[in-house]
Amino acid sequence: MADVFDIYTIIFLALAVFIFLRLRSVLGQRTGRERPPYDPYSARDAVRSPAAEKKVVTLPQRGSDASSRPAEAAPPPAERWKDVAESGSSVAAGLDAIAAAESSFDAKHFITGARTAYEMIVTAFAAGDRRQLRSLLSREVYDGFDAAITERERRSETAETRFVSIDGSTITAAELRNRTTAQITVRFVSKLISATRDRGGTVIDGNAEKVTDVTDVWTFARDVSSRDPNWKVIATETGQ
Predict the structure, then answer these.
(1) Is 119 exposed, middle or buried (0-12, 13-18, 19+ CB in 10 A)?
(2) Residues 18 and 11 sit within 8 Å (Cβ to Cβ)
(3) In the beta sheet, which residues pair with residue 212?
(4) Is residue 116 part of a domain?
(5) What is the pLDDT of residues 10-45, one digit of tens each?
(6) What are phi and psi of 70, to 5 degrees?
(7) Which of 1, 48, 150, 233 has the fewest CB atoms below 10 angstroms from its CB?
(8) Cα(174)–Cα(165) distance, rounded to whole angstroms?
(9) Residue 21 lies in a domain
């Protein structure tokens, strides 16, 4: 009886070893180099459309032809501020100083931004939008605008201003003060429809139907050592 038991035991052990070896050959064993489980999100992101591939910019490698090409030459001094300032003028010298302190400075881009700010400030003043004004004006200039709005509100008056066009925006002065503060003065020539009404709606100043030519001279300033890219108006006056 013991012999029979030993024979069956041996047979079962043999079968167990056989099954183990078969499972190992089919399923394999972990080696530490297995790929992570399939992630449908990462797989989806890995597939790029032809349009997306065209947007990828390949940086030149060190030693390649692209990296060995010389940088594009800067425009000659006579043309650096073309259509902005006359060569050899004090304005051009001031712009040169600002550009030396901030290499990314672009005078034409500045003028575009100044025109936008000019329209925003004039419109915000008429609407009594102090929040907008505070972000665009220096503290001293804002205080003056705020006082005028407060007085207008005290009398229950309302102002209306509509821009017809900005016909001119010319830089009349530029300088770099204390090596960090850039100041640029711009003369704006515009056409506006402007009127002030009393509490009853009657026009008491200006003309709600007539286009008026307006000239303003505003000075913008910015600390070129600051990360804040915004310019603020530090002075305003009516020009001729």
Answers:
(1) middle
(2) no
(3) 192
(4) yes
(5) 665 555 555 544 544 433 444 343 333 333 333 333
(6) -70, 150
(7) 1
(8) 25
(9) no
